[in-house]
Amino acid sequence: MKGVKLWLLLLLVGFAATAQKKYEWKQATxxxxxxxxxxxxxxxxxxxTLSNGLTVILSPNKKEPRISVRIPVRAxxxxxxxxxTGLAHYLEHMLFKGTDKFGTLDWAKEKxxxxxxxxxxxxxxxTKDTEKRKEIYKxxxxxxxxxxxxxxxxxxxxxMAAMGAQGTNxxxxxxxxxxxxxxxxxxxxxxxxxxxxxxxxPILRIxxxxxxxxYEEKNRTLDEDGWKLQEASHYYLFPTHNYGQQTxxxxxxxxxxxxxxxxRDYYRKFYxxxxxxxxxxxxxxxxxxxxxxxxxxxxxxxxxxxxxxPAPEKPITQAIVKDIYGPSxxxxxxxxxxxxxxxxxxxxxxxxxxxxxxxxxxxxxxxxNKQQKVLRSGAGVxxxxxxxxFNISAAPKQGQTLxxxxxxIMGQLDIxxxxxxxxxxxxxxxxxxxxxxxxxxxxNGNRVEEITxxxxxxxxxKWNEDVAVLDDMSKITKQELVTFANNFFxxxxxxxxxxxxxxxxxxxxxxxxxxAVETNADKQSPFLKAINDKPLSAVQPVWLDYNKDMQKxxxxxxxxxxxxxxxxxLFRMYYYYDMGAWNNKLLPLALQYLQFxxxxxxxxxxxxxxxxxxxxxxxxxxxxxxxxxxxxxxxxNFDKAVALLEQLVRNCKADxxxxxxxxxxxxxxxxxxxxxxxxxxxALRNYGAYGEKNPFNYTLSDAExxxxxxxxxxxxxxxxxxYSHRILYYGSKPLNEFxxxxxxxxxxxxxxxxxxxxxxxxxxxxTKNQVLFADYEMKQAEITWxxxxxxYDASKEAVVNVFNNYFGGGGMGAIVFQTIRESKxxxxxxxxxxxxxxxxxxxxxxxxxxxxQADKFHEAIAGMNELLNTLPEATQTFxxxxxxxLKDYETERITKDGILFSYLNxxxxxxxTDLRKQIYDKATGISFTDLKQLHQSxxxxxxxxxxxxxxxxxxxxxxxxxxxxxxxxSLTQLFGY
Length: 977
Prior knowledge:
- This protein is α+β, with helices and mostly antiparallel strands.
- Among the domains are: 76-270 and 509-533, Cytochrome Bc1 Complex, Chain A, domain 1; 546-743, Cytochrome Bc1 Complex, Chain A, domain 1 (2-Layer Sandwich), CATH 3.30.830.10; 770-975, 2-Layer Sandwich (Cytochrome Bc1 Complex, Chain A, domain 1), CATH 3.30.830.10.
- It is 43% helix and 18% strand.
- The chain contains 40 helices and 25 strands.
- The strands form five sheets. Strands 3-4-8-5-7-6 form a six-stranded mixed β-sheet, with helices on both faces. A six-stranded mixed β-sheet has the order 14-15-19-16-18-17, with helices on both faces. Strands 22-23-21-24-20-25 form a six-stranded mixed β-sheet, sandwiched between helices.
- Strand 17 (616-622) and strand 18 (627-634) form a beta hairpin.
- The longest helix has 20 residues, at 107-126.
- It is globular.
- One of its GO terms (molecular function) is metalloendopeptidase activity.
């Protein structure tokens, strides 16, 4: 969630010792450039304004040789023309299509065709007659095919991949369009060359297939009940403001009638330097970087930007209550309209949300979640520039109505308004934000996200206030907060009841007739060649040496794996077990139960409050074959936190009422899962991979769940430390000191209790295609291919990784994406990957996916099957796939507790050294022939399990039978209960 709450999470400084520090703007000059900065800013961000108005914000961080980048534009759906909603989002997609210098084979020949397409779209936009529109669109499709012969799809992504970029993406929201990258530090010069060209003269090529991808994106939102809730809450909260009156993807009517001229007008109006920024965090010299950016972007010319100035919203004077229908589980959402960003009221709203819900000791956390009075509940603020949205969401447990949940939420608001909470909670909230800040500063992505958020809201002019927000919060008194709550929480809310049922007014965007276009995947522009030929300074990979980078010790008969933290005052500790749900189906339930019970000294609520007051937290989780009990927080409170954890596990007391409530909530969760298309698809995939008995449905039956006794779970918990486990620690204590201190509370038996044998699941070896179908009321059809391959072999990892980068897991430049989405416009989301198992005993497997409109079902399957059976050869894409993998390894730095988990992961594969080195060395010599052999032996012309989630109203039995023997599965078969 963006906005004020994230500022608190990431920009807070050590408050206890620095409450009197000032955060003031200062000015400095270095290397001929003047910049502003805020004193005591933990990000040490420099704010530059270039002569053309372009804002550049630099936050150096030398932890790894990479740089996170955001290029924000202060324009989004708010600034869409009323007659062309969704336009900002269109434009975001088109900024990946190139310019007159890249993305084209011959601009002189391509341009006249694109001009003709422009004219046709204007005719199409203004024509109302259905038949005439079809004729015009047929001509658009024809000319687009001709123009595509001169276009090169995804050249931008190819350049990014070749220089080792990760996370190439962009997003559009109400006030922003943001372009996102993470690049190797040595590629910065190349990167800036590409970005300067990218924004110089974007060309709207390959438009009609990309528009179809946006159609798909729109249709996906029609299937997502969460999206319906968000749109409805904004619509009713903001009857005047574009927050509520214009959606980011746009209306169906506008999607059907795009105007390329309007898109260009929008670009010229808002994509100007005085409305944009370049934000970098990572390993660089700011003095050198600012000169580079200035030189490459000085061509941009400033232009006045029209500010969106809406009429003020009138107060909401009575509750607005609406029902929202859809196939997913029931829930409710309260939404209140908050004040503008950077206002005192916005800060008070965030604090109120934290008092209600902070995950540990808020009113909702303790009084509803911990006491299991609802299935779940939470609160938070989504802050925009002009207003914000204060949301409280909750879901009912078994046998509970939404109206009863509403009353419980209102009861907690009454407690807040009456001030029936301890004032120390505010101090605890501040302390936990301090912890989050220390954790967040380690990540460059966090830095650029928060700096960007400030630029969108106030162009970065109030960064001093953003940095000082913890001081501001710490000064808020309980009475001030209570006064705010009484003024804020009235009958001025939007209450949405998400009910199960059909939404009667959903109209999907229909599929237009599209002929696949040429992508010219193996061709390149002179610009791309020049960029790729530009030399890079070498970055040497750094491999782990487990004998040097970590230490081993003993605590009783438990192994201790240790890495010292020399950077800050945080610790992370784990009790790590090589056993899980496959060893004991009750183990996950026991660890869940632990969250809701106390000891002879502490109630469950007391334990949550105590951990929160210590700015520490614990988590206990049982996976299929690994269980971890983790503890993290401030090192100064380690001894108290670990003692509390040990007290809880060793002395927890049976609580029949808590177990009954837990079982009730699990029954509701299990029922809700059967209403969730993503969970249903996960169940289908497991069925396809393993058959009728599989890891997904290996769970407690309804009868087994109802028969669970509290004593059985308590026995598991009390004996947990008697099973073999290892202790992992990342913190500032020396190994001997850590082991000696932990030994005082973590007493261990002289011999371990034998670990129960694990159930073994064998992957299905298909000899013919099988179609597994689950019916779900939805507009789209989702198809997953499942194939099982040979046993794990570490020597194959290099070719598998290169293959994935090339074929279907390498982002927008990969073959699958280029073909399925770019050329044929069959899906918004698609991928195909060879999956590497976690353990040497397991098999490689293959998964492919297409999520498409139901009326493209056969085309989508045919498109993917063609790629599965015949591997296209694209030399440039292959070279980029290798380069990308090598550069990832060259710039990756595994540090902190990541070293410990790297050791454990390699151990499971039978490897005692850093496997990355072996992969890196082999990857340099991989040829396309190696990929082709892998494709032929493991993927081509194989039998697959086709896992299909769709509405049987749209995808018929005869449709499914075309691809194999059909098995329509009930939810009971899939879920095991």
